[in-house]
């Protein structure tokens, strides 16, 4: 793939043209950036016309991405967030050994130095502990409900942008522990979803019926994740 620099133009947004051995033009709008993938010899005129035609759509995407970005979790003094649906307020204290203390409706992060990276690390470590205390048990519970406990492998965690959870052939299940910040029924839905993959490693109608047997209102929770999932990510 040949990478060309940003080309500023008559459009109200900068864009980048990436040329390669493809036959058609396609536009990607990701993380607030516009990228046009074009055939090696595509003319500027063709690309410009295509951009003109797609301009309203591109601007819509950019606006939506900005809106979502603003809704991301900001880890600062006084931030409100929810742990499995329970409202908590974040407090930052500069004292003593770094640690997270959850007391009633307050989570206090004690730090030597209040840098964004340190706050985020301490918060995410704490969140992963909460996940560890809940997710494996709930997964085993659902696996038992399905009579598939023998198929369940390890439960681990990872933070990926693309997936909230993952289940593989060996029965190992991975969760994104940021799900602990979602309402509890949504969290449970995702656990039910991955556990149901122990029976069907696909998204067939039978798979969804299995999910439904564990989680009758799964559609609602799935929609919640589609529409609100971005709010669970700490702002970059
Ligand atoms: Zn799935």
Give the gist of this structure.
With 236 residues, the protein is α/β, with parallel strands linked by helices.
Give an overview in words:
The protein is α/β, with parallel strands linked by helices and 236 residues long. It has two domains: 2-70, no CATH class; 80-232, Zincin-like. Helices cover 39% and strands 24% of the residues. It is built from five helices and eleven strands. It has helices spanning 44-70, 116-145, 184-196, 205-214, 218-228, and strands at residues 2-7, 15-20, 26-30, 33-39, 80-83, 86-94, 99-103, 106-111, 155-157, 165-167, 173-175. The chain has a four-stranded mixed β-sheet with strand order 1-2-4-3, covered by helices on one side. It has a four-stranded mixed β-sheet with strand order 5-6-8-7, covered by helices on one side. α3 (184-196) crosses α5 (218-228). It binds zinc ion. Zinc ion (ZN) binds next to loops.
Backbone CA Rg: 22 Å
**Strand count:** 11
Overall mean pLDDT stands at 91
Question: How big a fraction of the residues is strand?
Answer: 15-25%
CATH homolog superfamily of the largest domain:
Metalloproteases ("zincins"), catalytic domain
Question: What is the CATH top level name of the largest domain?
Answer: Alpha Beta
| Helical stretch tally | 5
N-to-C series of helices and strands: EEEEHEEEEHEEEHHH
Give the strand line-up of the largest sheet: 1-2-4-3
Low-confidence stretches: none
CATH topology grouping of the largest domain: Zincin-like
**Sheet with most strands:** 4 strands, mixed
Number of domains: 2
Distance between the termini: 28 Å
Bound molecules: zinc ion
């Amino acid at each position: 793939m040949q990478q060309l620099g940003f080309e500023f133009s008559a459009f109200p947004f900068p864009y980048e043209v990436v040329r390669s051995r493809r036959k058609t033009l396609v536009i990607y709008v990701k993380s607030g950036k516009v990228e046009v993938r074009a055939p090696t010899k595509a003319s500027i005129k063709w690309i410009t016309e295509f951009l003109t035609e797609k301009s309203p759509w591109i601007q819509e995407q950019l606006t939506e991405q900005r809106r979502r970005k603003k809704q991301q979790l900001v880890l600062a003094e006084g931030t409100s967030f929810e742990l499995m649906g329970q409202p908590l307020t974040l407090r930052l204290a500069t004292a003593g050994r770094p640690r997270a203390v959850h007391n009633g409706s307050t989570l206090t992060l004690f730090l030597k130095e209040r840098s964004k990276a340190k706050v985020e690390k301490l918060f995410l470590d704490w969140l992963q502990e909460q996940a560890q205390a809940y997710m494996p048990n709930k997964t085993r519970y659902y696996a038992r409900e399905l009579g598939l406990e023998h198929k369940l492998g390890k439960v681990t965690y990872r933070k990926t942008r693309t997936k909230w959870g993952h289940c593989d052939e060996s029965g190992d299940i991975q969760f994104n522990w940021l799900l602990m910040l979602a309402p509890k029924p949504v969290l449970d839905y995702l656990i039910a979803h991955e556990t149901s993959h122990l029976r069907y490693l696909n998204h067939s109608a039978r798979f969804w019926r299995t999910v439904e047997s564990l989680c009758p209102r799964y559609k609602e929770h799935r929609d919640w994740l589609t529409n609100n999932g971005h709010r669970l990510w700490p702002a970059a």
